[in-house]
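Q: Structure tokens for this one, please.
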Amino acid sequence: MLIPTKPQEVTWTDAQWRAIFATGRDVLVSAAAGSGKTAVLIERLIQKMIRTDNPIDVDQLLVVTFTNASAAEMRHRMAEALERELVKNPEAQHIRRQLSLLNKAQISTLHSFCLSIVKQYAYVLDMDPGFRLANDAEAALLRDDVIVDVLESAYQAEDPEDVYRLIDSFTTDRDDQAIEVVIDKLFGAARVHPVPAKWLASIPAQYKLADDAVIDDLAFIDPLKLTIKHTLEEAYAMTEEVRQYALLPDGPAPLGATVEQDQLLLAEAIRLISSHSWQETYDYFQGLKFATAGRIPKDSCDEDLVKKAKDKRDQLKKRVMKLKEDYFTRSPARLLEEMKMMHPLLETLVELTTAYGDRYKAVKSERGLVDFSDLEHFALQILTTEVDGMLVPSAIAEDVMAQFKEVLVDEYQDTNRLQETILQIVKSGTEANGNLFMVGDVKQSIYRFRLAEPMLFLHKYLTFTSEPELSGVKIDLNANFRSRPEVLHATNFIFSQIMGQRVGEIDYDDAAALKPGAPYKDGEASVELALLTTQDEEEIPEDAGNAELVEQEDLKKSQWEARYMIQKIKSLMEAKTMVVDPWSNKERLLEYRDIVILMRSMTWSEDLTEEFKQAGIPLYAELKKGYFDALEVMIMLNTLRIVDNPYQDIPLASVLRAPFVGLTESELSRIRLSAPKEPFYEALKQFVRKGESGIHPATAEKLQRFLLQFEEWRHLARRGSLAELIWRIYMDTYYYEMVGAMANGKQRQSNLRALHDRALAYEQTSFRGLFRFLRFIDRMKKRGDDLGTARAMSEKENVVRLMTIHSSKGLEFPYVFIAGLGRDFNQMDFNELYLFDQTFGLAVKAIDPEKRISYTSLPFLAMKEKKQLELKSEEMRVLYVAMTRAKEKLLLVATVKDVDKTLSKWEDASVAANTMLPEYVRARAKGFLDWIGPAVARHADYATWQERPNANGIEDPSSWSFETVYVEQLRQDHVVVEIPQIESIQQLVTEDLKAEVARRFDTPYPFERAISKRSKQSVSELKRLDQLRQEEEPEFFRPAQVKEEMKKSVYKRPAFMQQGDKKLSAAEIGTALHTTMQHLDFSMEASSQALTDFIQQLANKQLLTVAEAGTVNVSAMQAFLQSELGERLRHAKQVLREVPFTYGLTDDDGDIQILQGIADCLFEEADGEWVLLDYKTDRVKGVLITENAITREMNVRYGLQLSLYKEAIEQILRITIKEKILYLFDAEKTLVLEDSL
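A: Here is the predicted structure, written as tokens:
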């Protein structure tokens, strides 16, 4: 590999020069943050095109970028570079040719490259080349429909038992959403593999174990044993720390002997897990027990050292016992049995996922759609042929290889396995003679959550060498041309202590360390770490007012940090801070646009935005939530809902309350009362049509105009586009202008414009129509998805920017705040029943669906250990990206609960013999501060801050400044109103004041009786209360046998008491008879046989149970049909049965109570008047002897009930009821009741 000699005048570094000209092999460039990798990549491309020896055309290069924006920028910068070359050599026709070819050069994302392949060779796949790319929203809608179809088909299979077991294992009783999520995630995880079906099939195979299988044969066991060994070694290292405490002059010497026993115990455990079987290790752990700590005589040593030593020993014991609990409590046989138990469930899951993938593919094919994942798989299908189970380049791939002289990949660390397979297919040669040029930085690989695989980069980084013979070449670019030395030294200081092979996945050695390359002048730019905390109660000044204490309690951590940053930004602005361009050495005043606030996530964005807004500092935040909660968006969506279907009362009421109609609550109530039984839309139309009074004339005019426009909107919705409908509503109602006049009007108008734009985008999909659009919105909200509120300001304005660390990748800012460093990492995925892994597949907890118990299975434990280390490594890289965004100043902000305890914890963790922090400290970190704190606690500046000697110090060129900020200092300034001095309080107390106080305290509440009334009451409950009232009256008399009869229970017994019990209660018998009467044909033959057959039919239809059917008195039914009342029913004009009603009854106080009831029967006779009939099964024979006694008792029991029925039904149906009849089945008697109201 020949590299031309670098001329003296060239400013490229040696490593950059080598990266520009290295050729003849695959090249991996590890380009650290700010190292100018894009400039190197473009220079390499230009040099290949302008060289005199065998120059190439730009369309013979395949350049793959991570985003479309990066591709556009690279194309633009290449054009500029070619134009500069053309200025140097105006006669160079080859360069002119490159400029003309540049627009059709293959400089794009990998998706775009795959798209061009699929379009060109669509005939190979037998697909329509006119396919359309589905956007994310459309694909989500399709997947939602498909998963429902797949599960429904599975439920309807001949033998769905396996599916039911799977559903029971992964879902709750509420719905199937959990299993839908699992299937969709599994499908997505499979799609990043070259052969998804093969990867899916391997999942249940991992759980299909032979009868003689042992744990040591499992594929994942060696990494797991290594993890356990590391944990034991961490514990051993902690024993050494305890021993060091014991050896100190004032240390707890008796603990020295104890800890030596601990070391022997741990050494044996390490030996067994390293070189012996799992069974032997299990047997050892069954008898593992720590020795009792040696007795320490009182006052014989330093109590603080004793506490530290004991705490450290307790930590290591806890860690070892946790290992025992997780891995060695259950026997090896039990662990294997749990794996076998999950095999059939996982087979079913894979079958459903496969069916889901097939159905999704078919649905897309029907609509002529492909998604981004399809592009890669279709391209791979075109470019490969399967030979003996292996993918080899196809004839088309050979043509593609011949077309491209070099394949260049930017951000290589963010590729996945499928993309790597495609790249390997289109490149030429092997690693030793290939044409693949890869640029990236594994320390900036932060997209594992999108299934990127940084291990692909790492594998090459570890196998490629600087001077290769049989492999590719590795080049490290670590000179940083972005940041001040202080920022780089601080970054190196932190990561040289925390990033290693096991935690971090790469050693942060000299090759990885950042080297200052920008010519900044010397200046004071130390990295600042601010710790926000609350003062202890005793530290709060005595003169602090109650208002301050209340505000302190109300403030959230997000507000604390926001206020601190606001103060800092204001002080920077007031100090007229300068920003320097190191290359031109020009200075200018710091502007808001030079400042960025980086956060791990945007969960604090609303609080920060509000605080900055109150402080008068413009803040731009790219929000991901809050759009659907915006009032103007809610009103417009409700408008669209009623245009689609006006019979939705709540959305309609919302629209009528909106400013463009403006009804009050009182006016809405009047509309409702105008037609209480009708839907609100019908009531509204009737109200307007009749011209009823009760609303303001101006409002009535708006209402009429709204109804006219509303009909036009409904007509437009049927024939026009959705976006046109939305804009028409804006124009007709002037709502767009109205919201513009409200507070934050620009933002509101932006939200309404965004709704119109999203409707336009929706109509570009395969879905159409208002109903589908609303359904799409509702599904998004149900899934918890949201859209960011539209931006009223641009990020290009002079604003402070708030963004996630992921969004900041590739950007740079003079001043960078990293906030929220005290928050814990998000580890919610470990609470699920499953974990995905690119190598193992799917690790699930062992679930017993019958007992509804889950066990943490061995694969799950193994994958949890692995995924937690991967998480920590990813988070470490996220922190690296954040710290390397700063050009001039880096400010770290964190909130801690107890600053003293936090600092003490840092200092304990920082005690280590070598540069790296102890591995257990790095692996067990819960948040960024658990790495930053122990690292900076070893710096001389920290010792100076704490005013103590730097015992554990590391010599380092970085400069740090520290600050503890008590949140009480961040309270908002309150306006103090001066109160005139008063010599005596008596001066304020006048007779008028006394009278007013007495009036306010002594005034009785005029509606005292209304407090005890229920707003809703059943007629049966009122009947019971009326009976109790009558019984208390002195003239009331009831015979003893009647009282005895009424003591019997009338309540329905619980279902479990009815099982296997043939004897039913009186209430249950009455219910059975009412059910029979509800379905009885009054014109049927009144024979015993006909009635018996009819009752049997009710039982067959399960309207009655067998026991209930046996209680129906057939002879009583005969008597009813043969009675005069039965004859009247047969000749009735119409008969209504089981008539439910809800009625507002006004009492003597003018209060309205809602009554509910159900009338048994209501029939209209020839004269047009109605009869109210109620069936009763009360026992009368032998209890009530005379006609008068029966009449009197029935009036007492049911007079009020039927009178209320009559009043309610007459008012609701606008009819006249001439009679109220009770039919007593026990006495076979018809009784006409008198009005009792």
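A few notes: The chain has a mean pLDDT of 86. The CA atoms of residues 945 and 962 lie 7 Å apart.
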